[in-house]
Amino acid sequence: MRHVFPTMGTVASIELPDDHAHRLADLRAIFRATQARYSLFDVDSELSLIARGALDLTDSSDAMRETYLRALEWRTATAGLFSPHRPDGILDLNGIVKADAIEQAGAHLDAVGCDRWTINVGGDILVRGADDPWVIGIADPTDAQGLISSVSLRPPRRAVATSGSAQRGDHIWLGGDPGPARFVQVTVVADDIVTADVLATAIVAGGREALDDIADRWPIDVLAVDREGQILATPGLRPQPPAEVTRMAG
């Protein structure tokens, strides 16, 4: 059974077996708590208090400081291409908290014995189910109704995340020269959703050099589309006809 609800400025689509449908309330609570803590659009959120100087980070909750530390670790690993600090100095954890909430929701389903599910939040997808692979379509950034490829998710590759300007406009802080990002869309397939999401953002920020470096250093697959429509892909994610797609990323 599929359940759809708005969250974190986008839409969540969660598929659960009928005998675990009652777990939806738990999952919604996870996303509500994440939004309430980290949203910069909510003036009363903990992160908003930090952003306007009403709360020191050192006095914030354990969850806030742990998330910040995780983001800093990714900043170091990506040589600053991913960062929790905006150019204006505001602490912004938006680049990691959605994936973190997806990860928490998946861990909860695993803990209660649900063995087949999908969590799709704004095109970032995590799946569980060892029998048949989940086939995920990758959206065409030039055609809102089209697909450019598909990928089969099966253990240990369970996560796919897409970043770029195709859906939300230019919103990623670039690590190279000023100007629009070279890639309008980057899709990363990885073993976990946080890695997929963070590295997709880092590749958009860093361009072709970042794509080559990151694809060499992490066990991931990447499909990137540049502003001229050229598609670059690692061997495991070559464009292919997106037949029999069950979910869509991007």
Automatic annotation (TrEMBL):
Keywords: FAD, Flavoprotein, Magnesium, Metal-binding, Transferase. It holds the Pfam family ApbE. It is an enzyme of class 2 (transferase). GO terms for molecular function: metal ion binding; transferase activity. This is FAD:protein FMN transferase. It catalyses: L-threonyl-[protein] + FAD = FMN-L-threonyl-[protein] + AMP + H(+). It comes from the Bacteria. Signal peptide: none annotated. Gene3D superfamilies: ApbE-like domains (3.10.520.10). The keyword Endoplasmic reticulum does not apply. InterPro entries: ApbE, ApbE-like_sf. Its EC number is 2.7.1.180. Its cofactor is Mg(2+).
